[in-house]
Amino acid sequence: MKNNTAIRAEHVSKKFARSLKRAMTYGMIDIFKTVVIPHRYRSDGFDARLRDAQRPERPDIPPIENRKSKIESTAPRLRPTEFWALRDVNFELKYGECLGVVGNNGAGKSTLLSILSGIYSPTEGRVELSGRLQALIALGAGFHPLLSGRENIYINAAILGMSTRRIEALLDKIIEFSELHDFLDAPIKNYSSGMLVRLGFAVAIHLDPDILLIDEILAVGDISFQRKCMEKVDELRQRNMAFMLVTHNLHRIESLCERAIWLEHGRTVMEGEARDIVAAYRRRDAREALEERMHHHKHRDEKEAVVTETPFMRLYSVELQRLDGTPVSELGYGEPFKVVIHYEAKERIPKPYYEIMFLRGEFRLFQANMLVDGNTPDYVQGPGIIECTFPRPTILPGVYDIEFACKTKDGAVFLIEWGRVNSFMVTDQGLESIIGQDGIFGISNLTLVGGVHYDHEWDISKAVLKE
């Protein structure tokens, strides 16, 4: 084991009780066990943190295997109303590294950070720490609401074992970074959420922690302060500080973190390079959204036998296919496809106009319209099929819906009114070689909005004007 490991988590599990009454009962039982059999049930994590706070200077951090700073416990089985918030989680965080954690709400991300910061002890497994740890896991955590911002800076620094002289030397830097000069002597109970973030982050990064845990709270600050925080994180990482970042912002994980772990229902789904984890997580979310919409379309079709029916026409299906006729719901970027419309006209209808609209959420992105194309059948009567081919699509990654409508030749009557008839997903396959997935301008940046990349030309001949 290299001696630059900041955190090592081994088989970490944590359980909670859904019932408050049960939780209190179990708590009393566990306290009794801790007192009666301390060698088996008591965690030495608290003593380890006291030793960390007393460490004089950061360069003297000894190897993690020599410190014996660990939080561990064992309690193997679930009792009534209990559930696993975390189950058998393993990872390592090294100095100079930023580790991202992704997952849906309830995946166990905040529970993991709470264990690492000493708020909880693990039910099973252990966490070993090497260095002074600071956590930003809740707005105003560790602050006294009746004290001023200045007083809270002193208190937080003193808790970390800093002398008054050292605190005073850092005070001006903390105030400057937080940009709270005019409010520093006001009680922080009067601070807005953004002001609390500013103060909390400024204190955390200037009190010389070795390990910094950051939860989603940075999303509360304004855009300029978020950018300032991320630049500071990158600067401190270059100075060999260890970071752990929990956020739903995949773009931020992709641009700041070298590695990431994906938690789902308390378990580790994947661990590896941040760009690979982000890509897999993004595709999973898109597929779930697509499956939900496809289930709706399928249920409707099975129930009604047709997609929609009017006095003029029946619409049986609007299907997405590859050019060889294979039905598909998932396409790579730039992959050709066609939309195949199966219908039945109840009477002879001259010159009907068919329209297909592509949407991302509630935003209408582009359409294929026979009124613009000028290509419409002379008439329709009885069953028929219309196909619309897209040989060179440039639809960016995301989940899209298809709307369909049909009008009379003068546009006065809807033969079939607008309605969502199908959904499909475009993946980032085909984009990796063009863009790559790491860095600030990774693929996640494209998926924030989605849309269409239209043919265009850049004129860069005047990018630098000569005098």
Low-confidence segments, given as residue ranges, are: 56-69
In the CATH hierarchy, what is the class of the domain at 5-132 and 209-283?
Alpha Beta
Class from helix and strand fractions: alpha/beta
Shape: elongated
Number of helices: 14
Write the CATH fold name of the domain at 5-132 and 209-283: Rossmann fold
The total beta strand count reads 19
Notes on the protein architecture:
This protein is an alpha/beta fold. The protein has helices spanning 20-36, 38-41, 45-53, 64-67, 109-116, 149-159, 164-178, 193-206, 223-238, 250-256, 274-304, 370-373, 432-435, 443-447; strands at 5-17, 70-72, 82-94, 98-102, 124-129, 133-136, 211-214, 242-246, 259-264, 267-273, 308-309, 313-321, 330-331, 337-350, 353-360, 363-369, 379-390, 398-407, 414-426.
